[in-house]
Write a structure and sequence with these properties.
The chain has helices at residues 2-27, 30-42, 66-81, 83-106, 114-121, 140-145, 160-178, 181-190, 192-202, 214-231, 263-269, 274-280; strands at 55-56, 59-60, 251-256, 297-302. It is mainly alpha-helical. It folds into two domains: 55-244, Lysozyme (Orthogonal Bundle), CATH 1.10.530.10; 251-302. It has a two-stranded antiparallel ribbon. A two-stranded antiparallel ribbon has the order 3-4.
């Protein structure tokens, strides 16, 4: 009886095993095998080649130090393989870098600082948890100190040209204080007092010698990564056509020195919509523009 039970059990288990093999084999079709082979033959993730030398605003980056090289490598990999974000950066930069560049040049700020705005905001009118606002991520108090009008109706941190001028003034002050564009960039993130405190505590004069918080220790390397990618996009794997990029905005400017009681009506009078008016003038924050002091505002409207 036991022998008979043993053989029955063996036959049953064998049948289940054979059934499992045929079932599994049925799931792995020839198309699946070819797909897996094609994936393994063609899918590749490469390390990005690093430049032999690098500078920020004309100041050498000490890539011979292993921790400097590895920090830069990290940011280069992140921005090279975060393709959806970086390709949008290329698209937006085509519109906005031509706005930044002449202002930076006017104030004798190195051209590399346009990448600071890029990593600060992605060239979008973002607002940080701390309240830093606009392309250049300027805090309210700092903005007012730098001459920007900021109130319920007007916030010039959203005015790209004026915010760029304000950023230039801040950077010039930092450069004068530290004698280094690299430290000026770090101070833009951490604040002048924060950077000065660390310089005094650690008794060093170089950004690359300072032990800083995570955000500021990555900050300049993020700028450098975008600089390297933008200067040679194809080396980082980015390809695009000129038609893929966002063109400069097409508008004319109207000077207004009186109150506008209804910006919706003002927009319609100028053959546009309130939405497009706000897109061209994000510094307008409400549906009206009080102007008791008769200040001259430059308002952009579509051609």
């Amino acid at each position: 009886m036991a022998k008979r039970f043993f053989w029955l059990a063996t036959i049953l288990l064998s049948s289940v095993f054979i059934l499992w093999i045929f079932t599994y084999s049925g799931k792995v079709s020839e198309a699946d095998v070819l797909y897996e082979k094609d994936f393994l033959d063609n899918y590749r993730i490469y390390a990005i080649p690093l430049p032999e030398s690098l500078n920020f605003a004309g100041e050498a980056v000490p890539l011979d130090r292993y921790y400097v090289k590895e920090q830069f490598d990290r940011e280069l990999l992140i921005n090279s393989y975060w393709q959806s974000q970086t390709i949008q950066f290329f698209k937006r930069a085509n519109r906005w870098f031509p706005v930044f560049e002449p202002i930076l040049k006017q104030y004798n700020i190195p051209d590399d600082f346009k990448y600071l705005a890029l990593i600060e905001s992605g060239l979008m009118n973002a607002v940080s948890p701390a309240g830093a606002t606009g392309f250049w991520q300027i805090l309210e108090g700092t903005g007012k100190d730098l001459g920007l009008e900021i109130n319920e109706f007007v916030d010039e941190r959203y005015n790209v040209e004026k915010a760029t001028v304000a950023a230039c003034k801040y950077l010039l002050k930092s450069k004068e204080e530290y004698g280094s564009w690299t430290l000026a960039a770090a101070a833009y993130n951490m604040g002048n007092r924060g950077i000065q405190r660390q310089i005094e505590r650690q008794k060093v004069q170089s950004y690359y010698d300072l032990h800083l918080n995570e955000e500021t220790s990555r900050y300049v390397f993020r700028i450098l990564a975008m600089k390297v990618i933008f200067e040679n996009p194809q080396k980082a794997g980015f390809y695009y056509r000129e038609t893929d990029l966002y063109p400069p905005l097409d508008y004319k400017t109207i000077s207004v020195d009186s109150t506008i009681s209804c910006l919706v009506d003002f927009a319609q009078q100028n053959n546009t919509t309130y939405r497009e008016l706000r897109l061209l003038n994000p510094w307008l924050r409400q549906y009206e523009l009080p102007n008791k002091k008769g200040k001259a505002y430059e308002i952009k409207v579509p051609l």
